[in-house]
Here is the input.
Amino acid sequence: MFTGTATDRVFNFSPGPAVLPLPVLEQAQRELVSLPGYGMSVLEMSHRSQGFLDILADTKRLLKELLGIPDTYHVIFLQGGSRLQFSMVPMNLLRGSAQPADYLVTGSWSKYAVAEAQREGAVNVVWDGKSTNYDRLPLAGDLKLNPAAPYVYTCSNETIQGVQFQSEIETGKVPLVCDASSDFIHRPLPIGKYGLLYACAQKNAGPAGVTAVIIRDDLAQRGAENLPGYLHYANHIKEDSLYNTPPTFAIYLMRLVCLWLRDEIGGLAKMHAFNKQKAKILYDVIDASGGFYRGHAQKAFRSLMNVTFRLPSEQLEKEFVKLGEERSLDGLKGHRSVGGIRASIYNAMPLAGVESLAEFMKEFKATRG
Ligand code: PMP
Here is the structure.
């Protein structure tokens, strides 16, 4: 299992941009000035050159291989982050629809997505976790979905609250749309259950600047004719992600991350097992702390990617973050909207980072508890 680290690197628990696999950074460093076989940096390559076309095609192929994406789906690489998808999804799939789209509000990011969708059409919020401060997710029986809705929208992992769906909700014939920004490629996914799935890269898949969209062919054609060109999925599919100049370096790096996942980790099932192992180490410390650490998410909905918890006081939380930094445990402060502590432990967080944080948590409790 990947445990690599370099002595001068901190353990970066930032929610994104986030830690990247060290071998990926090292390869990018080696290749930065001159990509072997091309005599120039990937930063200098035309997006229409054979060199970059090869990189683009290979990144797509690797994602398809890792996730087992069927041929009835397209993979495109866009800019504008996941935020732009909050708008592109309803622009393409909701605009002009006689029926409202069903949205599940499970935390901050799906709430933002609703606000954008409402600019495009009618939205039916079928579930909202507000009453328990977004510490849980709906169970199958909690949902009454509209069988005629143009789509059902979910966020698979709420990065701020640290709640994560353990499996896909059943939507019947209605396309499931998913913001998988903060848990993309962290486990195998039954892509056939999704109509559209998207993820910005800067958590699990690469640097900021590129967003991967996986979209079923029939949905890609739904967008209205009069949409601005960039905002129509079909244009990006037709031009194979070269409708405009794509974020070439970010795509190059995503390819390296995919290769690392395939060749060094051994695929998504292995990655999932490793992610479960890492998360358990931290949740076990929380559960054994006699209430000193209080996890935000209810146990059944705990995220493998973002471990969120509180300490007995804000003063102690401040101290925890500061002392953590002194021990090279970086980025532990919770999101400004909810406070507390958040340890983001994406795919590339080495086991040593999680173990080091667990040790620190135990020590901190022993001296302050
Ligand atoms: N959705 C989720 C689940 C996120 O975590 C984020 C970023 N933290 C976003 C959407 C927004 O992504 P971006 O900043 O790339 O627009």
